[in-house]
Structures are given as structure tokens and as C-alpha cells.
Write a structure and sequence with these properties.
The protein is of the alpha/beta class and 561 residues long. It folds into four domains: 154 residues, Alpha-D-Glucose-1,6-Bisphosphate, Chain A, domain 3, CATH 3.40.120.10; 115 residues, Alpha-D-Glucose-1,6-Bisphosphate, subunit A, domain 3 (Alpha-D-Glucose-1,6-Bisphosphate, Chain A, domain 3); 127 residues, Alpha-D-Glucose-1,6-Bisphosphate, Chain A, domain 3; 83 residues, TATA-Binding Protein, CATH 3.30.310. The strands form six sheets. It has a five-stranded mixed sheet, with helices on both faces. Strands 7-6-8-9-10 form a five-stranded mixed sheet, sandwiched between helices. The protein has a four-stranded mixed sheet with strand order 12-11-13-14, with helices on both faces. A hairpin with a 6-residue loop joins strand 18 and strand 19. Helix 2 packs across helix 3, helix 2 packs across helix 5 and helix 10 packs antiparallel against helix 14. The longest helix is centred in the middle third of the chain and has 21 residues. The chain is globular. It binds 2-acetamido-2-deoxy-6-O-phosphono-alpha-D-glucopyranose and magnesium ion. The site of magnesium ion (MG) has 7 residues, from loops. Catalyzes the conversion of GlcNAc-6-P into GlcNAc-1-P during the synthesis of uridine diphosphate/UDP-GlcNAc, a sugar nucleotide critical to multiple glycosylation pathways including protein N- and O-glycosylation. It comes from Bos indicus x Bos taurus (Hybrid cattle). This is Phosphoacetylglucosamine mutase.
């Protein structure tokens, strides 16, 4: 390591005095103007991680659904997964080191992580469409090169595309070709193969409206749509030609406001979906004939996908295990439906893709989705081998099912939730099953739910257990929540410190919207009182024509990323 060169270069990417940032649930994220030093240092760190793992590492410059002025960065590990937890700590130390301590921190990390400094390093870089992203990814490149790493800059990519590239490279192309073209071809040919049967039946005029959040998803979907167009025609809205990124549109807006994005024309019963700003989340929705809005979130996506997979697994009859992984935010109706009607085992993990992903790896086939629309399906090596073998050898119906599963394996981006890939899977299933969006929605009825946020002096005073469903500290808070929950039917509530914002999130559900809102309010008050609330006390809401008034409105929880 040429530490002198690092010191010299670092001056050009100087850290603002006193600025402390945390590698959060999905990397660093804040105002773009504060991130130059972080980008440079993540370039350095990616080189060390690449040397240590003897693999290609990815660096993605994006702040997902955050406002356009923000930016962020996350590292991608060799199998296309999110960065290992122990390295998140190194990332935080490196980002926060004062200029003069930078060389020492680099040496410390190398020693602690037993990095072989003689090893070559290779880093791939992708970025979203934010105005600041190009400059910031150049800072990543500066960090990579000063430590002698090689790099390939993919330029504009969705987050899941970068994850895909990393895995392709580290699997020597076995997972696919590490190019954008390779990604389009792999997914599209799986989609076309899979849907052949449905489209032969004459169901060949499927259209879907896609709100692209004015983000990178628009560029990539516009490039890709010709590859699968005879089967599915997508109409792009909020494609970035005029609107602002994530402003009044995108998956996060739709999920948290439970209303359609601006800039999309919806006719009754028409299927629509929204991506988030870096296209790793998707939600569906429609207006019914009475003009009522219906949201189909990650829970219902997981349900559709798992019921389709379960049917195919029964047909091949090979005893492969299927499990569904959710978080505490999953609507109680979805969990009940999966467990009681579909008889599928359901597991709950902490919030954040990496937790769900790791749990899903325990099954032959692991379906994971957060309610907010982040998710995918993982197939174990053994399951994949078995399915491939059955697709070749078995007879008729069994072979047909195995072939479908084979294409489904290729259609999913197994490195991370991917809005484009999930969209194609959903469209294929709806076409094959001949399901309308209303029939899909009618699988079960969501329990009314409400998310709120509460400001406290230090959100770390709250610690949780049982996949964030129970509070351990401060004393008395869980007991208070238990007592409040008892007052309502079909009710559930939990609180957790956010991993991305300086607030505590409150979630409640119950048998009616009114009861849900009362429960959410009462739990917020308990948090405010027992966990050091600051600012204005939560106020009971006034609900009129579906609108929230008073300061309660400002507490309305932003759906998590
Ligand atoms: C992140 C996570 C998302 C999670 C959200 C929770 C990834 C790629 N993203 O952005 O999965 O739902 O954080 O945010 O892991 P919160 O801690 O503020 O509720
Ligand atoms: Mg995202």
C-alpha cells in the first residue's frame, strides 16, 4: 500500500471536519455534497475487500428512493450479496477517520481482516441517474486506483444489475454474461420461454404501465423492452424526461401514501406498477371501477410467487423445501394466508434485505419479500441441479413443471431484489395462470395498518428482540404496548429504531382503520413517554375524508426502503 499516495490523494477528497456517518442498513446515505470523501474511501475499502476475498467487488453509487439531492454508496460482496456485517464496521471506521489517521486505519483494517496486500484487486462500479452520481463515482475510481486496484466502470446501472454483474464475474460467467446485454438476454429469454404456453393461447396483448420514479429503471427498461416485447408491452411513465427523481412518484411514494404516483394515467382495473429510484423495489396497484385505489405490496407479491412455485413443486413431487421469509412489517393477513391456507412455513427476520436473504438461503427454495417491495427467490445449488435433471429426464407433466422451474430460476435475479426481474416473474405468472390483477388482489384482504414515526433524543435507547417484534429496553415499554394491543381485535403493534433515519418507527394493525389509528397513536405516545421523546408530543389524529390533520400528519411513517 502506497500510503503517501493515499494521503496526497485524500487531500483532494477531504473529509468535512466533525462529520460522522454510519454504514447503515444499505450503505452510506446523506446529502450528496457531504459524500465526496466517503466515495473515495469506499474505493479504497473495495480494493481491500477485493484483495481479501480474491474476488471482484462492486460499488454502487445511489440513494435509492431518497430525494434527488441525496446520494449514497454501498459495496457488493463476491456472490452479489450485500457487504458482510464485519466489513460494515470497517466501512464506518474508514469513512469517519480524520485525515491524519487515514493511513493508520487502512493498515488496521488490513491487519484485522488479514488482507493479503500482494493480491490483485478488481472493482466494478455502477451509478444511478442523480446529477451528483457521475462526479461521486469518479471519486470511487480515484480511491480504487490510488491503491493499485483495477476497475471497470459500468456507468449507469440499476442497483440489482450491478449485483448481477459482480456475481457473473465471480462465477466465471456461469451465472450469466457480465454485460448489460447479457442481463437483458438472460432474463428476456427465460421470460419468453416461460410464457410461450400462455401466449399461444392467444393471450398475447398484455400491457403494463410502469412508473419508473424518474430514475435509472426508466433508462434500463426502455433499453430492455424490445427483448420481451411480443409477449408483454410496457408503457413507461415518469421516465425522467421531465419530472424530478422520486418526487411524488416511485414505489416508496406509492407504498407510504397508499395512492397512485403523479404522472401516470390509470384506467379502471388496469395493472400498474412502480419501481423505486434504483429499481430494486416494486409494488403493483390498480383503481377499481368505483375509483378506489388498491395497493398490491411485497407481501402479496410473495404470496403469488410462492403459490405458483408450490404448485410446480407438487407436480415434480421431489420433496424440495419451500420457505417464505418476511419481516415484522408483513401484513398479518399475508402471514395467516401463507401459513394456514397455503401451508407454507413462514419465517420473520429483522428489517433489511441482508437478513431476509440469509434466512432464505436455508431452504431449497427461499422466497423473501419485505412489504415495501424488496425481494426475490433463492434456489439452492441442490435444488437447481435436481430441477435441471428432471427437466431433461422425466416424463410429460413432470418435465413441463421442471422446465418452468428451470426458466423461473433464470428469470429471478438471485443476488438481490430486482424490480425488472420481479416484474417479469409476476407478469409471467399472471399470464400463465390467467389471473387478472383483481383476482390476484383478492387472494386475501390486508388488515388495516398504520406506520408512524416518533422523534426521540437517542433512538438507540430502544433495543429489540424476536426479529424486532419485542422491545427489551427501555423497561416498561413492551408491557405498555402489550396492554394497548389487548384493547383491539386482530391487533398487533411493534416499535423499532430506524436504521436509515433518526427516528423510531411505530407499526400497528387491527380489525378496522379507526382502531389501527388509535392503536398506532397510543403506542407512539408510549414511545414518546418511555423512550425520551423530543419535540411535539404525538397528537390524536383528526381523520376527515381520508386526510390526516394536525401535527399527527407529520408523524406519518415514511414506508421503509
Ligand atoms: C434499507 C433496506 C430495506 C429496509 C429499510 C429499512 C436494503 C437494500 N434496504 O434501506 O430493506 O426495509 O432500510 O429502513 O437492505 P428503516 O430502518 O429506516 O426502517
Ligand atoms: Mg432501492
Amino acid at each position: 500500500m502506497d500510503l503517501d499516495a493515499v494521503t496526497k490523494q485524500s487531500v483532494l477528497h477531504a473529509k468535512p471536519d466533525g462529520l460522522i456517518l454510519q454504514y447503515g442498513t444499505a450503505g452510506f446515505r446523506t446529502k450528496a455534497e457531504h459524500l465526496d470523501h466517503v466515495m473515495f474511501r469506499m474505493g479504497l475499502l473495495a480494493v481491500l475487500r477485493s484483495k481479501q476475498t480474491k474476488s471482484t467487488i462492486g460499488v454502487m453509487v445511489t440513494a435509492s428512493h431518497n430525494p434527488e439531492e441525496d446520494n449514497g454508496v454501498k459495496l457488493v460482496d463476491p456472490l452479489g450479496e450485500m457487504l458482510a456485517a464485519s466489513w460494515e464496521e470497517h466501512a464506518t471506521c474508514l469513512a469517519n477517520a480524520e485525515e491524519q489517521h487515514l493511513p493508520r486505519v487502512l493498515v488496521d483494517i488490513s491487519e484485522k481482516a488479514a488482507v493479503d496486500l500482494h493480491q490483485d484487486a478488481f472493482v466494478v462500479i455502477g451509478r444511478d441517474t442523480r446529477p451528483s452520481s457521475e462526479r461521486l463515482s469518479q471519486s470511487v475510481i480515484d480511491g480504487v486506483t490510488v491503491l493499485g486496484g483495477q476497475f471497470y466502470d459500468y456507468g449507469l446501472l440499476t442497483t440489482p444489475q450491478l449485483h448481477y454483474m459482480v456475481f457473473c464475474r465471480n462465477s466465471n460467467g456461469q451465472y450469466g454474461k457480465a454485460t448489460v446485454e447479457g442481463y437483458y438476454q438472460k432474463l428476456s429469454s427465460a421470460f419468453v420461454e416461460l410464457t410461450k404456453q400462455a401466449f399461444c393461447r392467444g393471450d398475447d396483448h398484455r400491457t403494463l404501465k410502469v412508473d419508473c420514479a424518474n430514475g435509472i429503471g426508466a433508462l434500463k427498461l426502455a433499453e430492455m423492452k424490445h427483448y420481451f416485447s411480443p409477449g408483454l408491452s410496457v408503457q413507461l411513465f415518469n421516465d425522467g424526461t421531465k419530472g424530478k427523481l422520486n418526487h411524488l412518484c416511485g414505489a416508496d411514494f406509492v407504498k407510504s401514501h397508499q395512492k397512485p404516483p403523479q404522472g401516470i394515467e390509470m384506467r379502471a382495473n388496469e395493472r400498474c406498477c412502480s419501481f423505486d429510484g434504483d429499481a430494486d423495489r416494486i409494488v403493483y396497484y390498480y383503481h377499481d371501477a368505483d375509483g378506489q385505489f388498491h395497493l398490491i405490496d411485497g407481501d402479496k407479491i410473495a404470496t403469488l410467487i410462492s403459490s405458483f412455485l408450490k404448485e410446480l413443486l407438487l407436480e415434480i413431487g421431489d420433496g424440495l423445501s419451500l420457505g417464505v421469509v418476511q419481516t415484522a412489517y408483513a401484513n398479518g393477513s399475508s402471514t395467516r394466508y401463507l401459513e394456514e391456507v397455503m401451508k407454507v412455513p413462514v419465517y420473520c427476520t429483522k428489517t433489511g434485505v441482508k437478513h431476509l436473504h440469509h434466512k432464505a438461503q436455508e431452504f431449497d427454495i427461499g422466497v423473501y419479500f419485505e412489504a415495501n417491495g424488496h425481494g426475490t427467490v433463492l434456489f439452492s445449488k441442490a435444488a437447481e441441479t435436481k430441477i435441471k435433471q428432471l427437466a431433461k429426464e422425466s416424463e410429460d407433466e413432470k418435465r413441463k413443471a421442471a422446465k418452468m422451474l428451470e426458466n423461473i430460476i433464470d428469470l429471478f435475479n438471485q443476488t438481490i431484489g430486482d424490480a425488472i426481474s420481479d416484474m417479469l416473474v409476476i407478469e409471467a405468472i399472471l399470464a400463465l395462470k390467467g389471473l387478472t390483477v383483481q383476482q390476484w388482489d383478492a387472494l386475501y384482504t390486508d388488515l388495516p395498518n398504520r406506520q408512524l414515526k416518533v422523534k426521540v433524543a437517542d433512538r438507540q435507547v430502544i433495543s429489540t428482540t424476536d426479529a424486532e417484534r419485542q422491545v427489551v429496553k427501555p423497561p416498561g415499554l413492551q408491557e405498555a404496548i402489550n396492554d394497548l394491543v389487548k384493547k383491539y381485535r386482530l391487533s398487533r403493534a411493534f416499535v423499532r429504531p430506524s436504521g436509515t433515519e433518526d427516528i423510531v418507527r411505530v407499526y400497528a394493525e387491527a380489525d378496522s382503520q379507526e382502531n389501527t389509528d388509535s392503536l398506532a397513536y397510543e403506542v407512539s405516545l408510549a414511545v414518546f413517554q418511555l423512550a425520551g421523546g423530543i419535540g411535539e408530543r404525538p397528537q390524536r389524529a383528526l381523520l376527515e375524508n381520508g386526510l390526516w390533520f394536525s401535527s399527527f400528519k407529520s408523524l406519518l411513517g415514511k414506508a421503509v426502503e
